[in-house]
Design brief:
Helix content: 10-25%
Strand content: 15-25%
Distance between the termini: 34 Å
Structural class: alpha+beta
C-alpha cells in the first residue's frame, strides 16, 4: 500500500476491437505521434493476480492506431456503442520500480463498466486509508511530515494543468495539511497570496539566537527565510547568486 498510487479515476472510456473480444492479445490504448507515453495495461473484472500486468509501449489517445497485431483500442467515438466493447480505464503507479523511466512505473487497468471502475478505485482508496491508520496507530510511520509553506510559493496556472491529486485521508501528508489549516482557520483577513513563483531548488533548517528554529528556501529568484513555526512568515533575504553558496 505504501508504494501504490492511484493516479486517475475518470479517464475517458475506450472501445476494444473484435480481436480483443476473441482473446487475441490483451487490451491496449492507441498511440498517436503527439503522445509518446508508455504504460502497462490489463482488464479488471476480478482481482488481477500478481505479475499479471503485461507491458505495452503505448499511451492513451483520441485516435485509433494498430500497434501490435491483434491489439486495437480506440477512444470512444459513439456513446451508443455496444456495452461489451466499452472499457473504462484507470491508472495506478508503483513507486518501488527502480527503472529510470517514470512511465515504466504506471499501469493502465480497464474495468467493464463505470460503476465497476468506481468500485475498484474506492476499494484502493479505502485500503490505503486503513493502511495509513494502522501505521499511525502502531507509531510505525517512517516519517512525520510538517508543512513548511502553504501559500508563499506557487506556479503559474499553466504549470498546474492536469488532474488533481487523489486525496487519501489519514496519511502523514493529509494530517500535516490538516494541522496547518487548523492553525489558520480563525486567522483574520483573506488567505495570503503567493510571494514567489520561481522554481524552488533547495531548503535547509538552522538555529539562530536563543534556539530559534528557522527555515531557508532557495529559489531562482532568491533566498527566502521564515520561522519554522510560521508557514506564512516568509521574507526574501538574498539574491539568486547567493543560493548555491548559502544553501546548496
Amino acid at each position: 500500500m505504501d508504494l501504490l498510487v492511484l493516479e486517475s479515476t475518470n479517464d475517458e472510456p475506450v472501445v476494444r476491437s473484435t480481436a480483443n473480444r476473441l482473446g487475441i492479445g490483451g487490451p491496449t490504448a492507441a498511440k498517436d505521434k503527439n503522445d509518446q507515453k508508455s504504460g502497462r495495461h490489463n482488464t479488471v473484472g476480478a482481482v488481477p493476480s500478481p505479475g499479471a500486468l503485461p507491458h505495452s509501449n503505448t499511451g492513451l489517445s483520441t485516435t485509433s492506431t494498430n500497434t501490435v497485431p491483434g491489439r486495437l483500442v480506440t477512444a470512444l467515438p459513439d456513446r451508443s456503442a455496444s456495452d461489451d466493447r466499452v472499457m473504462y480505464p484507470f491508472r495506478i503507479k508503483h513507486l518501488g520500480n527502480r527503472s529510470f523511466k517514470a512511465d515504466d512505473n504506471s499501469y493502465i487497468l480497464y474495468a467493464p463498466s463505470q460503476q465497476n471502475r468506481m468500485d475498484w478505485c474506492e476499494k484502493i482508496i479505502q485500503a490505503k486509508e486503513r493502511h495509513a491508520q494502522s501505521l499511525h496507530a502502531q507509531n510505525a510511520e517512517p516519517f512525520r511530515l510538517k508543512v513548511m509553506a502553504d501559500t508563499a510559493f506557487g506556479y503559474e496556472a499553466t504549470a498546474q494543468s492536469g488532474p488533481k491529486p487523489i486525496i487519501v485521508r489519514g496519511t502523514p501528508l493529509d494530517r500535516a495539511i490538516g494541522e496547518v489549516e487548523k492553525m489558520y482557520e480563525k486567522a483574520p483577513g483573506p488567505r495570503p497570496g503567493v510571494i514567489c513563483r520561481a522554481s524552488v531548488n533547495c531548503a535547509t533548517a538552522f538555529t539562530v539566537n536563543y534556539g530559534r528554529e528557522m527555515i531557508a528556501i532557495g529559489t531562482d529568484s532568491g533566498v527566502f527565510t521564515a520561522d519554522a513555526k510560521n508557514p506564512r512568515g516568509w521574507q526574501r533575504v538574498g539574491r539568486p547568486s547567493y543560493i548555491r553558496e548559502s544553501l546548496c
